[in-house]
Amino acid sequence: MIETLKPLMREGIINWCETVKSVVEEGEIFVQKARKSSSGLVTILLEGLPNAGKTALAAYLAVRSKFPFIRVCSPANMVLCDVKEKCIRINNHFDDAYKWPLSCLIIDNIEMLIEHNRLAPYYSNDILRTL
């Protein structure tokens, strides 16, 4: 599974400022929190400008977590899928993740996944509800 994450981190992670260092440190705190069985579901939202390295940071934290199940849910893997098929695939990702005591599911490029369009305010409510 780690091999599928390597392309997402092709430039590596460079702690070039306090913000990046802080995100990595906080991400590792969330990983430790997830390891505690009493904590339940732990979610992290990385937000920022396009091409800022959010996916690379998510993949980096996933690899460092060493969780037995790590998967990326990306619209790049669903190019020819209609809304119904996307919902089924997303649901399968979550079903698979719930089977493991520790799992990491990276939802990449959520705007494209829900078919969001900034010019004409549109998104797929079915996909959003599935998520």
Order of helices and strands: HHHEHEHH
Q: Bin the helical content.
A: 40-55%
Structural class: mainly alpha
Number of domains: 1
The count of helical stretches stands at: 6
Which regions are unreliable across 5 or more consecutive residues at pLDDT < 50? none
How would you write the strand order of the largest sheet? 1-2
From the spread of the alpha carbons, the general shape counts as globular
- The CATH architecture category equals 3-Layer(aba) Sandwich
Regarding quaternary structure, what we see is single chain
In terms of DSSP E residues, the strand content is 5-15%
Mean pLDDT: 91
Roughly how many Å is the radius of gyration?
Answer: 15 Å
CATH evolutionary superfamily: P-loop containing nucleotide triphosphate hydrolases
CATH topology, which one?
A: Rossmann fold
Q: What's the total count of β strands?
A: 2
The largest β sheet comes out as: 2 strands, parallel
* Ends distance: 22 Å
Q: Regarding CATH, which class?
A: Alpha Beta
Structure description:
With about 130 residues, the protein is mostly helical. It has one domain: Rossmann fold. Helix content is about 45%, strand content about 10%. It has six helices and two strands; from the N terminus they run αααβαβαα. It has helices spanning about 1-5, 20-35, 55-65, 85-100, 110-115, 125-130; strands spanning about 70-75, 105. Strands 1-2 form a two-stranded parallel sheet. Helix 4 links the parallel strand 1 and strand 2. The radius of gyration is 15 Å and the shape is globular. Keywords: ATP-binding, Cytoplasm, ER-Golgi transport, Hydrolase, Magnesium, Metal-binding, Nucleotide-binding, Protein transport, Transport. Its main location: cytoplasm.
